[in-house]
């Protein structure tokens, strides 16, 4: 039995009919267990202090200890005033707080905090409770709960606090591993949550242990090196065609830290779910079974998930699945990214991204703006293991890349970074070229100049009978080489592929100096493949036409 299920049953057996709470990551298991049990009514308050006061009033009227719950950190500290109120007015109450996982607690380390929101609420509450404990193991729960109710009601009544570290659900993890072991065509979908939770190294160890091919979202481009044997490619609206087809052919999908928004799945969420088994791991419960229904939910922070699952599979072996890897390899060979754009004039942007990444091994990061170039970069950059890929995903903010490159240059002192922007995006924060030159930052500025807002122009081509108002008509861009020269930045412009090798050599001639490379792209170059809106993820333009107009 899960610890949280036991707690829910125990509280009900003590006569607890209502629990007052403000939900948070560290108490999601408790909330879910009480909801699923259906015997205790959860009352969601809007501040933890209010939840504590409500529990106190319940206790003073019924004589049964009131129960309030809060998550770690600020959730727990917000309970303190209510705890004091119960203590001074002799009100029996049980306060349950979530805590970070045991391996994320600082213990005796001479630091203030180790885990996110880690706060020693037990020490803070010790002087205003009859007892305050931090649970050290699941086996302690039954005796501590029994003691808590006894102490709260004995002698002069008062509050007891129990701080419970959250652990990933071992039963669900074992079920996941069992399903994974029998899957014939499994995939891992790696999202940006892996990077933001600082668990990239754990993710790589896990994926290599289970030997499962990995597709990535736009925010997960850099999670595996391009040449890693498990890396498949980028999925989504403008994902690699072979990666999207692999999703369609998979029978098991493990989603790690990815929201499954419309840009990842396409509009046809039922087709994305299909008949495949999906396990979805995310720290926010609301992100799971939101758009794509029928996923097995695993609410957990990713570092804890990886550490727990690695403990459970230490001695396990997983099948090689050579046939599945061979299928994916055949798909990649059938649909190379450099041949998606047929009969275009001038520079092929996918081929250019291959050339750029090959020449930019010294770069610590690629900072990518928003637009067509963003998709070409996600499709075709070949990143090494230590290189970062940063872009504006959920916000999709044009103008991101240049100031982000400034920040990245300071974050990686002595290491060059590569900015990739379109002509429209660069103009939105072009003034920061002065910051680059003022500090002599080692930023290599690559401008993909198609002299229009290309992604919207492509949209107008599809849905507005090629009326290019405000994207090409009424829009203009400067010669960025001349702009860069005015700022004192060395520059070069290329118009065809034969000029690219020399330009890249010039760009990297002085590793520590800023340089702007202007890459001229034909105005009518589209970004393909692209999910045909209203169709499954496997059906992509230009071979399939959209059934509806995109709403995003």
Beta-strand content: 15-25%
Q: Compute the average pLDDT.
A: 90
Poorly predicted sequence stretches spanning 5 or more consecutive residues: none
Radius of gyration: 27 Å
Portion of residues within helices? 25-40%
Secondary-structure arrangement, i.e. CATH architecture of the largest domain: 3-Layer(aba) Sandwich
Task: Write structural notes for this entry.
This protein has 552 residues and is an alpha/beta fold. The chain has three domains: 3-165, Thiamin diphosphate (ThDP)-binding fold, Pyr/PP domains (Rossmann fold, 3-Layer(aba) Sandwich); 170-334, Rossmann fold (3-Layer(aba) Sandwich); 337-528, Thiamin diphosphate (ThDP)-binding fold, Pyr/PP domains (Rossmann fold, 3-Layer(aba) Sandwich). Helices cover 37% and strands 17% of the residues. The chain contains 23 helices and 20 strands. The protein has a six-stranded parallel β-sheet with strand order 2-1-3-4-6-5, sandwiched between helices. Strands 9-8-7-10-11-12 form a six-stranded parallel β-sheet, sandwiched between helices. Strands 14-13-15-16-18-17 form a six-stranded parallel β-sheet, with helices on both faces. The longest helix has 15 residues, at 48-62.
